[in-house]
Specification:
Blueprint: E1 5-7, H1 23-28, E2 39-41, H2 43-49, E3 53-58, H3 70-85, H4 95-101, E4 109-113, H5 117-129, E5 132-138, H6 143-150, E6 155-159, H7 163-171, E7 178-180, H8 191-214, E8 221-225, H9 230-239, E9 249-255, H10 260-267, H11 294-300, E10 303-307, H12 309-321, H13 332-342, H14 347-353, E11 360-365, H15 372-379, H16 383-388
Parallel strand pairs: 3-11, 4-5, 4-7, 5-6, 8-9, 8-11, 9-10
Antiparallel strand pairs: 1-10, 2-3
Helix pairs in contact: 3-5, 3-8, 5-6, 8-9, 9-11, 12-13
């Protein structure tokens, strides 16, 4: 099967006009359970890819949830609540104090559409702050993900249709008694999704800080999953910021059955692709790019590649052998690299990226086993067993440096 990909020749020249700050990271550090997620050296993965070193940023547990989405949801909720309040929230040192400062806004509902992780993160923030949550999901969402959102105390509405249909339905809830916290944008609704993107920046700041602590170089190649493009926009803005001299090559990865950004790149404008968007990479099953993510993603990512479900399964199993629990969407970034190094069609991309024995690669595993039954069927083991057998530790100065 021919690999579907697109090279973006001008990406290295792009400079982000919305420069990320460490303000979201300062908020995240106040949240209960905050700790930087592990950055693992994965030599076995590097050997398979034929590169010098692979760092895996492991987001299988972030602020008590099995995915990175709490970072965007928490910062966007905070900023939206402050705006709704009409005045600065003021000083606070923990979530209970923050909830107390926002108590006069009740009753209030936080709403969102989701393929799983974002909606659960919004519901968690609502519960912590004493608000209601109403989450809209597409009709093909697996029961385990619905149950997880309901476990946060949220009301669930199953929408007859795709994720994009759920987004459209959630938008109807906006009003004085309901704030929509969406990670995608549409005309007239841009501030909140921009804050979601800003919230994701904490991942990259943590990577920078850890590599600096270890005295290790920044990555040469960074691979990032693309759904509507929010997370990809955060990664692009970080690695295309004006102050950065050594710019890594960026690889954006989508499911073949939901490659809306790749289709838009091919059309040179934002387009929507028809469903069903039914990849196992559920968090990436989106048919329309986010309007506010599009400028940075379309201009700053070097290579876009679509991968099928079997490539994602292969990436999950490879990460499991390295002791890292990664769900279907979480492993998509690695799946993209596996496709590029295995395909006879992509020699030009490998040359562009400089993939070889001295290349330093960053892979961000964005979720853990959010569907435990599917994870066991794909990997052949429970996520708990994979994690408990992990012989590695987060990167430290004693680990072997591959160069």
């Amino acid at each position: 099967m021919t690999t579907r990909y697109l090279r973006n020749p001008g990406a290295q020249r792009y400079t982000a006009d919305r420069v990320p700050t460490r303000d979201p990271l300062a908020l995240h550090r106040k949240l209960t359970g905050y700790a930087p997620t592990p950055l693992h050296d994965a030599p076995a993965v590097a050997d398979v890819l034929g590169v010098g070193q692979v760092w895996i940023k492991d987001e299988s547990s972030r602020l008590g949830l099995p995915a990175f989405k709490a970072l965007g949801a928490s910062w966007a909720s905070y900023r939206a609540l402050e705006e709704h309040r009409g005045a600065p929230i003021g000083e606070w040192s923990n979530v209970d104090e923050l909830a107390g400062r926002l108590a006069n806004l009740r009753p209030l509902t936080l709403a969102a559409a989701t393929d799983g992780n974002h909606g659960r993160a919004v519901a968690r923030m609502a519960r912590l702050l004493g608000f209601d949550a109403h989450i809209f999901v597409p009709d093909d969402m697996v029961p385990a993900r619905i149950a997880a959102i309901e476990g946060e105390g949220a009301t669930i509405t199953v929408v007859d249709g795709t994720y994009d249909d759920a987004v459209a339905r959630s938008a109807q809830e906006a009003g004085e008694d309901c704030l929509v916290i969406s990670d995608t944008s549409w005309p007239g609704y841009e501030r909140v999704p921009a804050w979601v993107i800003d919230g994701y920046s904490s991942i990259m700041w943590e990577v920078d800080d850890e590599l600096a602590r270890l005295g290790r170089p920044q990555p040469d190649v960074v691979t990032v999953q693309i759904g509507v493009g929010a997370f990809a926009s955060a990664v692009t803005r970080h690695y295309r910021r004006p102050a950065l001299d050594d710019r890594p090559h960026l690889v954006g990865v989508e499911p073949t059955r939901a490659a809306c950004v790749l289709a838009s790149m091919e059309a040179s404008e934002v387009v929507s692709i028809a469903g069903p968007h039914d990849s196992i990479m559920a968090g990436l099953n989106c048919g329309t790019p986010s309007l506010i993510a599009w400028p940075s993603v379309s201009q700053g990512i070097d290579v876009f590649v679509a991968v099928d479900d079997e490539r994602a399964r292969e990436a999950m199993r490879l990460l499991a052998r390295a002791g890292i629990v990664s769900g279907e969407s979480g492993a998509a970034g690695l799946a993209g690299l596996l496709e590029l190094v295995a395909s006879p069609d992509t020699a030009d991309v490998r040359e562009l990226l400089g993939l070889g024995s001295s290349t330093n690669v960053l892979v961000i595993s964005t979720e853990g086993a959010t569907d435990p039954t599917a994870y066991r069927a794909i990997v052949g083991r429970n996520a708990e067993d994979v994690a408990s057998d992990d012989p590695r530790h987060p990167a430290d100065a004693s680990e072997t440096h591959r160069s």
